[in-house]
């Protein structure tokens, strides 16, 4: 993930200093975004832009000539397909509710000049958008709070440590008796020097500290004694919780909310309101008494629908988090049981687990051989093993 923080030049941007200063910053933003996308990174572009998105949008919708400084918005939104979650998801339709800058000089009007733009995958994982007043620091800006709830976007620590799309694999099959003896001697030396055996293994308060010591010794001995090979990484696995009903409903509500927020897409919703209403009633069954009788034709009805979407979203977010917690607890229990078993029965797999190494295997269920100058397909498992 790449986070790009930008502070825009304040004050009126003239043509001269735009070409000399602002354009340099804009070009740098574009360079960083392109570089990040080339690395398949998700991007958060945020900061005090000192630009007014609503003015840009007004000029664009009315086919007026666009100011040069506003072309950055056009590039971010149209060319790079970034999303402004606050504009799309914010509950209150009034643009004043999106204001982030409240000048100390009360003669000046509040405005919206602070933004968070995110790539499509991040937007689809939006959990919450808030604009809050800060009390710990003296500032004329309000704080944007944006949170996502899918851990898949970050990945585990092992993935973060990998470099250039490769990982290290320990080649246990290349080890012979002498090398395993060296491994054992190296591990024994570490245990002796670290005084692990002097710890009280029955003290629950020490268990994490002891395990960290053991893990460090296994890693050190493995690196010293076991042959290592670098292999190219494959795509990470998808979180199985994404097939849950709660997750699917939340994604639907996000997309539905976005559709009725956009006046162009709202017409499609209105034309297909019977289908949407049926889906929404199904989602809200036993969770809401709202009848979805109002078609989102005006700001008043849209605001009312937004409020109900928010209520349903929070309900399904609780359900999703409950399911996710249960899933994690089951996975942790299985992992603990497996590690305890491997400690006695399968030390190789235990080391792989400690090292957080991804294990891959190839299932060979058919082999094509040439026999008597004829091609022959072997599918029998036992015969394949004999080949």
Automatic annotation (TrEMBL):
GO terms for molecular function: catalytic activity. Residues 2-143 form the Endonuclease/exonuclease/phosphatase domain. Gene3D superfamilies: Endonuclease/exonuclease/phosphatase (3.60.10.10). InterPro entries: Endo/exonu/phosph_ase_sf (IPR036691), Endo/exonuclease/phosphatase (IPR005135). It holds the Pfam family Exo_endo_phos_2. This is Endonuclease/exonuclease/phosphatase domain-containing protein. It comes from Rhizophagus irregularis.
